[in-house]
Design brief:
heterodimer; A: mainly alpha; 4 helices; 80% helix; globular; B: mainly alpha; 5 helices
């Protein structure tokens, strides 16, 4: 949500919007975790899955963040539009 | 370590990479990876995704800071606003049926994708 809002309404260049969004997610996720954890009553986290997912995702996030500067603005915009479009259609059809 | 653990690492690698380049929270990609790919329930996938997002965003965010990709002021304002939004959202989400919420979210994403696509194909030198 943070990426399209910055680019479409605040005219932030795509590269900065993508990076800003990832930084802003850190406090949001930290705040959301206990709310989600406690409201549901029992913890709904699969720690085994989380550990293996994180092993891959931190490496991927590091590589992706290093690569960002080399991707032209236009291609970056198309990639964001594609991912948002696919996930959006999935949510509309299979909510 | 089983094959499914290897697939989880690969799924995380792909989701993390897109997170680092595209900047979307892992949730957008982690949740479908776990529900469609590994058959986890939506509730467990969302809870697990929130746990996985934190180290992923920290590593990606710090790397972005070092690379000079971040406008720190707006990022901190969005983070602060997002914390308030997350608390309100968590309270509202309980009252609104999940499928309705998902359809609003989906419509927002499709509309944003359409507008970003238009911008990309009409890209002027100013935005390049």
């Amino acid at each position: 949500m943070l990426v399209p809002l910055q680019v479409l309404w605040a005219q932030v260049p795509q590269r900065y919007a993508n990076a800003n969004s990832l930084v802003a997610i850190i406090p949001i996720a930290i705040a959301a975790l206990p709310i989600y954890y406690f409201r549901k009553g029992s913890p709904q986290v699969d720690l085994h899955v989380a550990v293996f997912l994180v092993i891959g995702s931190v490496v991927g996030a590091y590589a992706g963040a290093r690569l960002l500067r080399r991707i032209p603005e236009r291609e970056l915009k198309i990639a964001v539009a594609l991912v948002l479009g696919v996930v959006g259609i999935k949510e509309l059809l299979l909510p | 370590m089983s094959w499914s653990d290897v697939l989880l690492i690969l799924g995380g690698l792909g989701a993390g990479f897109l997170s680092g380049t595209i900047g979307i929270g892992g949730g957008l990609l982690f949740v479908p990876t776990m529900t469609i790919g590994f058959g986890l329930s939506q509730a467990v996938a969302q809870g697990t995704s929130l746990v996985a997002i934190i180290p992923t965003a920290i590593v990606g965010g710090v790397t972005h800071l070092r690379q000079g990709n971040v406008l720190l002021g707006p990022a901190l304002w969005m983070g602060g606003g997002g914390v308030v939004g997350a608390v309100i959202g968590a309270l509202v989400a309980v009252e609104v049926p999940g499928p309705i919420l998902a359809r609003f979210w989906g419509a927002f994403l499709v509309f944003s994708a359409y507008r970003l696509g238009l911008q990309a194909f009409k890209a002027s030198p100013k935005t390049a």
